[in-house]
């Protein structure tokens, strides 16, 4: 009989209420285990509740290294996996494991660790920014520290996460001592965001206004994303949200938001002195697919040549981690490759700092309703502002 009576998923089902000691025990196990395997240059890449076993004494152990990536010659080469392979349980996997837009590193395990932490409390995974907070659910001594760790570990861009388990451990240690943790004023980011917008389109202030000129849109996005923020900006559709670091104009006048290609019809703005309910909303039309050798593709990779020219290929050709290009086989990570994905699934996307009223979950239903409108009118934007104003984040309310 196996010494492990259950896995973490089954263990969690038996608990009606989570005590802080239970949670701390899980965190310390995750930190210790990841530190150990990462020191051996192993990336697990499939951390999920089913792969954490629990013995009769309640001790945890990480199992199933079947898809782990080993970078040490001491381990069997059969366990090496290629970049670009679609692995693991999507709910707990880092974005780069799913969309192959960044190299999969130890930060992917760090992302999965934070999803485990979030799931252990709320019994579901985080779907992006603006999720539930432990400090709101439990009056635990270190609840705010846990929330800050989870928030940073779940950043969409791996370079914005903690880069090692040691960094997390140090932050956790300092946090428990209530030292070296900067209490971020959400109005700092909201002010930067506000100024970046009105410095390009002052007509957005105190009135509902929209722009259709793609050049002005590009100038606006450059202004917004060139600012330095305490926390990442976010996008929200009312259906899903996440952090965002750039929106760039493409050669066909579409825009690229991370890897998502958008045909932006209008950018709506409605800003005022309150800052926390500023609205910057993208109204989206469908993008046309790429035609390659007579076929239509909605998911492509753009390869940039040394001479500055670009070649567009079906994205599926990059999934092995290698591609035959200019009569030679190249490693994808050695090339400059831009992923473009056309989904045509949203008509409305808002951009804002994480504590803005348009980002918090309580206001998702109002944004989701806008997805059903074929062409927005000024009154739709005014009505959105009236509705979101009623729900504010806890951090904003503290400072009003």
TrEMBL record:
One of its GO terms (molecular function) is protein serine/threonine kinase activity. Coiled coil: none annotated. It comes from the Bacteria. The keyword Nucleotide-binding applies. Keywords: ATP-binding, Kinase, Nucleotide-binding, Serine/threonine-protein kinase, Transferase. Residues 1-172 form the Protein kinase domain. InterPro entries: Kinase-like_dom_sf, Prot_kinase_dom, Ser/Thr_kinase_AS. The keyword Ubl conjugation does not apply. SUPFAM superfamilies: Protein kinase-like (PK-like). PANTHER family: CELL CYCLE SERINE_THREONINE-PROTEIN KINASE CDC5_MSD2, SERINE/THREONINE-PROTEIN KINASE PLK. This is Protein kinase domain-containing protein. It comes from Leptotrichia wadei.
